Amino acid sequence: MTRPQLGLRQNAAQFTLLVAVNALVGGMVGQQQTTLPLLAEQVFHLTGYTFVFAYVAAFGIAKAASNYVAGVLSDRHGRRPVLLAGWLFGLPVPLLIMWAPAWEWIIVANILLGINQGLAWSTTVTMKIDLVGPRQRGLAMGLNEAAGYLAVALTSAAAGWIAAQHGLRPAPFLLGVAYTVIALVVVTLFVRETRGFVALESTVGSPAGQLSDRRIFADVSWRDPALSSASLAGMANNLNFGLSWGVFPLLFAAAGLGLREIGLLVALYPLVWGVGQLATGWLSDLVGRKPLVTLGMFLQAGALALIAAADTMPGWALGTAVLGVGSALVYPALLAVIGDVAAPEWRGRAVGIYRVWRDLGYTAGALLGGLVADATSLTSAVWVAAGLSAAAGTVVLVRLGETHPEKRPV
After folding, report:
1. Which of 88, 104, 153, 285 has its CA 20 to 30 A from that of 143?
2. What average pLDDT does the segment 21-43 reach?
3. pLDDT computed for residue 222 by the predictor
4. Which residues does the UniProt record annotate as the domain Major facilitator superfamily (MFS) profile (predicted)?
């Protein structure tokens, strides 16, 4: 039997399968980005942005909690069973949305979607880190996140086009049905366990390999400057994504744009984000993590200010594209920071806890968007998010040290 080896090339077949699986995970979010805010207004006749955006908040809380569970279970029982469980939770999601008689059903569907995303996306991240080892960690994370967010973008645009042709329900959500069936078949038949690769990189017997769950949580949340700075930046990034999910379609619709135009604008942000990560993950291996994270957060602040100030489609398109560039710089670099600092023995838990804080940003963005929009306007909510992104960038600039093994100061 061939001894397993670390490296992207050495594990190309399994790595490619996991990239494809993560694309399907992202597509589950994309199927509803364009359509759900419009369903709330046009089908369920809801008023009050805070209530409308409750589905994003529910998604964020469920995903955050599931990230932690995924990390603990994957370290203790293996990665593959957690990945399979994530897809079982995703199976009812499109069906619930297609046939929901009340908005509460949509919220339940998004709780299940959050569990699907937390278990499945977190586990594909950990599995890829297991396979490639430290030298190509940024590249691996870039490919992983690019696949997920390109799928978000393409599915978002496709769902908008389908909705324009066939209505808001049920046709756009047939995409989600197809994604779950394909993923369950691929994971069941072809994906292999990767926890055995941890031993190749392990530091068994070192203090880093013997941390308690409580210590790991404290390090990732506030104690370790690098890990906690990554958690804050991740939360700010996903606050912007959560806000865009709820606010952007309604902001653009209020200006008179149609479903196709809204679908294109909503898709542009994750499209640029996804494509950009094909380069930025590799770039973080080349120049280090901190420059990309710092620049990315300040770019996001500027992009949100542009979106808030614009009132035409070209201005919004430029703003959403720059927002995507900022997220592309940040996302794989932050995951690489976690992989750089966390020891192999507690890597799954560290990834899970980081993603708890990062994905609570969805909830923060939804609540911020709803409360500020109800109190003032949708545009004001975007301005507030711009200020928070700039504040997070400042913290990263001051507190995050370089973590790349070959770029750390001597």
Report:
1. 88
2. 89
3. 94
4. 11-404
